[in-house]
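Figure-free illustration: sequence to structure, shown twice.
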Amino acid sequence: MSDQNTGRPAAHPDHPSAPDHGYPPVRETPSGSGYGYPPAQAASPSPGHGYPPASGHGYPPARTAPPGVAYPGPAYARDTYAHDTYAHDAYAHDDQHVHPPRVFAELHEGLHPEEAPGAAEKAEETGAAPGKPGRDRYFDLLRAIALFRVVLYHLTGWAWLPLVFPSMGVMFALAGTLMARSLKRPAVQVVRSRIRRLVPPLWLLGAIGVTGMVAQGWGPDADGHPGWWWAHLLFWVLPLSDPPFAEQLPGVHGFLDSSWPSELGGPLWYIRAYLWYVLLSPLILRALRRFPWPTLLAPLALAVVMSRELVTTPERIDSAITDFATFGACWVLGMAHQEGILKRLPAYVVPSLAPVFAGAGLWWATHEGFRTGFDLDSIPLAQALWSFGCVLLLLHYSPSWTEWPDRLKNWDSTVTLLNSRAVTVYLWHNVCILAAAGLYDRLWSVDWLGAHVPWLLESWVPVLLLAWALIALCVLAFGWAEDLAAKRRPRLWPNGAVRGRPKAPAPGDGPAPHPNGTMFTRG
């Protein structure tokens, strides 16, 4: 676990008056994934796919062809596209218009932002609330906010940010929801798919990061025994425990300081925790269905045990168990939401209980000395209780948007991009913050700026903007690994924008254009 203070550490080495930008090691991110085109044709209801009874696959009735126009293909070919994030579901757009096979094939060739994944995963997840088809844009919005909050927190270190929005609890809850939805398919198949989608971005990070660390002098002697160093490197392949990384290395002058390996390795705890949740999810779901409330509260009980140090374990195991306990209740809560367990409660129960859990977490945080530099990330039990209470309210509210509300439609491309590249953003954002701070601090060498606008050089806002610019470059350079993990054709900037439109069909070769002049619309 990475629990660090934040602040502005030592002055810039070349300019003593220049404060350095500080940020704590990463403790958070996103999670769940799913690609999956809905099946291309209606089928009889099947419990193996989790679609509502007597509704085929949950699609609305097909539109009838205008008088005198013959649709050459069946009405089930729909304008739908899949979208993956680190823990994410399938988009479903254009709920009103249908297209023949020719147009649907064109959509697969690139007219839509995502390619269809393998047939075995076409119905894996849609991210919608129980019983509703399509992508839940409310969940997408929560995930995007969580990512932005993570970046802001790791730049500024403001202790109150995790209280305003508990990003990690939200991300694990959304992943749990999608995992429960996926487990309508065979468990081995789902777990294998999840692992396949998890590790390629990690491999890419490791290939670059480990190579850089070795080039700067990190090697077998760093772990106390060469054999352990080589063995621990395997965790970069399958992160059952934290992959190893150096603590301090020379860095790159004016760009990355000596802490860059720690910043690179900071987010890896999340990959490890997520992997264990995935591996144990079939058992957790089975227990949840049989013993709902004991299963839901068991991680919180484990968090109490670990907090009181009632069990002594080696550091690697202690870290893994503590992280599992801290956010495990949120993961199980997401599964309970998907299973409809929360919906069966009287309407007043969740709004009554959630503040009790959140309040208990806040009380424990103050009891343990909550302050800047010693916030919820440093107090796992408080983090667990606060996150559980807040996520409980967010899932209770859960409006399940299949389309954006009008006031949020302008954010569609931004939210879509963040969801599409959540893993890349999370894995690389800490290094981007470090690089942005190093680059911005070089402006202190301009005497006029230091004399006339020192407030600008001390501001965190330009560093945040520069960090996001560097994150965007990482999305362009490394985001393709998420597409390969999803068995999709790599895309540079998957923000949901339609890259082109189908050519007008020859007479008798396709549907008539929609009255607005387009072949299809986006949701």
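We now fold a second protein in the same way, so the two outputs can be compared directly.
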Amino acid sequence: MTIKALVYLLLPIILISFQVTAKEGSGKLLADVVYQPVIDSARADTCSEYLSWQDTNKINVQTRNEIGEAEYRKTAAFISELDRKAEDIKRSIRQSPAKVDIRGTIYYISANGRDANDGLSSDRPIRSLDKLNSLNLKKGDGVLFRRGDLWRGTVSTRAGVIYSAYGKGEKPKIYGSPCNAAEAGKWSETERPDVYVYDQELPADVGTLVFNEGQSCAFKVMKDRKGDGATVHIETDEPFNSYRDLKRDLDFYHDYKETRRLYLYSSKGNPASRFKSIELLVKTNIIDAKSNVTIDNLCLKYCGAHGIGSGTTRGLTVTNCELGWIGGSILSENFAKRSRPTRYGNAIQIYGGCDYFLVDNCYIYQIYDAGITHQYQEDPRKPVVMRNVTYSNNLVEDCEFSIEYYIRYAPQNVESYMDNIVIKNNLLRRAGFGWGKQRPDRKSSAHIKSWGFHYNKASDFTIRDNIFDRGAVELINIEAEQKDWLPSLRRNTYIQFANNPAGTLGSNHICYPFNERVDTVLQQLFGEKKPKILYAAPQYSPDTLRLKD
């Protein structure tokens, strides 16, 4: 019997007899070991291991009666108020006016325009994204999309240019999906009953299919390779070799390398008849961002890579935007020598260094990976500096990670660090409850995600006045190799299911419980002052993807 197995066997007896405490840094009491049966290394899955152990052993250390029904009712009332607040925020963001200051030439684009036009007035707008991407835009210029219109494709920005909206009505929409596949193209039944093939060639991997404007989505079947070379369904572990092995309703398989066709299992008839809209999240960014670009008042949806993606960038500003249903395409077939493909996709991402990066007053939801992120993990010899970053006043819902950040280890002679990072006044809701929960590594979700295997060297890093509203696994994951590199926390609100992890926290990478001691943990690790702690009962666990058709 291994030491770990012995600990698991004896822990219920230990819990009955006495509590054992864990110490970090100063040696002060931080948390009960009952939530950390395994804390022997800096591992990102510590809390997920606890959840698996807890479920297997049917241990509920902090029972419903110990928390108290009054506490649960108070939390339920607070969550109901958050529901109303979130609707108000959505309405405000969707109706936000454009207040950009364009000092150069303004170009207008409308779905009713003509590419033969010069685009220099709202009476002579251009029409297509191809025409827009061909314009010789200069620093100080601006591009205004007409409200109420829809485009499909990618915008390749130019440095120093502002992209915003004009007119009245809903925000201009730019979709990464090439078409509404319920109307364009044809679905035909294959030789396998209930398995349909879409007749359009799709060479870029599809992350998922979104039905009826977000009422539900498909499950992406990928092959997991076993040691003997056999391939199995990524979730069910049943033999899987091709579309002929599809068995579950709304499972799909995309053979993007050979036939370039997409196959969908639909137990309720032809998909085109079953759904009013089918959006295809193909592997593309909707906006490729450059330095000193402002993106304002746009609605960006339905792509398999990133909504707004950029490498090392200075002066990127994203304000008053709506971004939803993004990600899920395959990043690599064998990343880190895994037996299965690795998927990706963030709403707003800078990968590399950044300076003056602002995301403010945006509504972000249903993202496969992160809502907002700055990150880098490649060549350690490359200096990477991330500074002057602000994420403020955003509503982020149903993403795997609401906000993600990390910077990898660098040798002593290489300057790689984060500085002046501010995360404030955001309402972050239901991490890990969106469609990203179909990912293979589904036990990693959190509102703040830093990953324990990165150094995360940082200074002047503040997380304040945010609301962290429930996480399927961890509520927050804030780690760094050294204690001095951790952010400071101030006046945040924490809502989590009683007896679930608060998160893997600190420089010792320990999983802490969400119990009556969590405020002490937050204070000692991060200097948190005046936190609001609310315990949610299990029945308030949200189900955001009930199928409606």
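Summary for the second example: Confidence is low (pLDDT under 50) at residues 1-45, 57-64, 545-549.
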